[in-house]
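Deliverable D4.2, example record:
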Amino acid sequence: MSIYEKSLNEYLEVAASKSATPGGGSVSAVVAANAAAMVSMVANLTLGKKGYEDAQDLAQKVADGCARIIEDLKDLTARDMQAFGIFMDAWRMPSDTDEQKAAKADAMEKAAQNASQVPLDICKKCLEILEYAAEIAPVGNKGAISDVGVGAYIAEAALKAAMLSVDINLPSIKTASFKEMLVAERARLFTEAEELKVLAVADVKKRL
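Output generated by the structure prediction step:
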């Protein structure tokens, strides 16, 4: 059963238990989905509203985009939980012979890369949410505009949180080019997320 099919209380109970999943990456994805929902809500509250005629196309774009991101994050949540299982399966592989050692090392490398790529993809979705927040903040329904700020703050926090699941796997990755890509993407995502958050929140505060 997907954690999105659980009640909120059931989800919190599992997340707080000694179960290894949902862990940091998948929890960050759930949080990011909430950020997308807040930005989408403001867009939907703008659609069809008098006084916002010029913002209709943008509001529809943001509402549709955030709906897509929420579905993507649901998939990434499941993939992040699966990534942990894949990593543990690799870790449990035998290593008695040279052949087994080589097979295990290869499996561990692939598992570590996968366990890094999935949370990185979550981070990229967070950046998309911030892009939508920055777009809707200047023109969205003023009566709910504070929720765009909520979405922007949460999206940036979820991005930074999910990135920790990348960071923890970096020491295990042996492929230099892949590790370099992760480090470069980390810097880019953090910089762009900060810029978009500041932009979105500034517009929100102007309209409070």
